[in-house]
Amino acid sequence: MPQIWLTYDELAALMNCDSAGARRAAVAIGLDRRRSRDGQTRAKLTPPLMDAFLERILREHIERDLAVCAGALRAKHEQMATQPAVMAPRASAAAG
Q: Do the beta carbons of residue 34 and residue 42 sit within 8 Å?
């Protein structure tokens, strides 16, 4: 099973609390914790926390993609609004 280790700041963002609150929560729920080579302590996520973390990342990507698409759609709408309308010839006019 893959492992995801988060700093207390990253865990705080996931849990909507501050870094100290994330540390207390990690201790309270018994997450494995280790100090990394960069000097920061990281907590290993449990499977439910991994699901929440991955769901959050996916939601952020989807929201960003939707914002890009909505911006492109708005730009296309503005572009179309500034161009004169071109009428297609009618079928009866072409036959006559």
A: yes
Q: Is the pTM of this model over 0.90?
A: no
Residue 16 in this model has a pLDDT that exceeds 70: yes
Whole-angstrom Cα distance, residue 67 to residue 74? 10
Q: pLDDT-derived band of residue 92, with 50, 70 and 90 as boundaries?
A: low
The set of residues, in sequence order, having a beta carbon less than 8 Å from that of 63 and lying 6+ positions away, is none
If DSSP states are collapsed to H, E and C, what string results for 7-21?
EHHHHHHHHCCCHHH
Q: Measured between alpha carbons, how far is 64 from 14 in angstroms, rounded to an integer?
A: 18
